[in-house]
Amino acid sequence: MQPEAFSPNHFGWTFCDGVATVTLDRPERKNPLTFDSYGELRDLFRALAFTSSVKAVVISGAGGNFSSGGDVHEIIGPLTRMAMPELIAFTRMTGDVVKAMRACPQPIVAAIDGVCAGAGAILAMASDLRLATPRARTAFLFTRVGLAGCDMGACAILPRLIGQGRAADLLFTGRVMTADEGERWGFHNRLVEPDALDGEALALARSLAAGPTFAHGMTKTMLNTEWNVSLETAIEMEAQAQAICMATNDFRRAFEAFAAKRSPVFEGN
Length: 269
Known about the structure:
- The protein folds into 2 domains: 3-209, Alpha-Beta Complex (2-enoyl-CoA Hydratase, Chain A, domain 1), CATH 3.90.226; 213-259, Orthogonal Bundle (Lyase 2-enoyl-coa Hydratase, Chain  A, domain 2).
- The chain is of the alpha/beta class.
- Helices cover 48% and strands 14% of the residues.
- β2 (19-24), α1 (35-48) and β3 form a beta-alpha-beta unit.
- α1 (35-48) runs parallel beside α3.
- Strands 1-2-3-4-6-9 form a 6-stranded mixed sheet, sandwiched between helices. A 3-stranded mixed sheet has the order 5-7-8.
């Protein structure tokens, strides 16, 4: 599918210069997620796995906030009235959003401002890179509504980003992680001023889109699949992955550009 053909109903979508921008766009409610927006995000990221013209993705929120998470009235209220088969269908669907984000080959850059809570924090966590403003406030607040912190892969992914003890702190208490903590702990790659956030995120995504995108996809795959294997297996996986990348035209282009003392132009093949 061509990216121009995507027409989501529950979030903003733009595409330019190889970069797709997903904007959570209900600013009057701090961009909460609904049953429909979960489903559309899942389907979008699944489709991106087959959309080679999209080289990188930015996900952001409108109106000075990233996302307040699942909408209290449109999701949490209905969930209290559902039977177990419906509940497990819902939790599996939300988990599929994270699976799709991790499985798509494009690097995903989260641009985080203001509130980043609940499922919104999960979307940020599931991204590959995170830029945030000093006023970003991130909270995995599931325990605040009587739920476990193990939501949408949080107990698997968050400790790998910030460490077991820090993840336990956030997932047990549901407290806010400040922007400074997030940067110091490695959750945020860097902090930028609010008026520069969108531009910095787009610039980062464009730099990735201009790079060897096939190789970027391989890097992402290895980052995700080497979690649960031995060092010996990981080294062999990387040997095979790198050999595959060495057979690409981009590898040859990089060498020829270096030899000619010019910048390479990558084409993703």
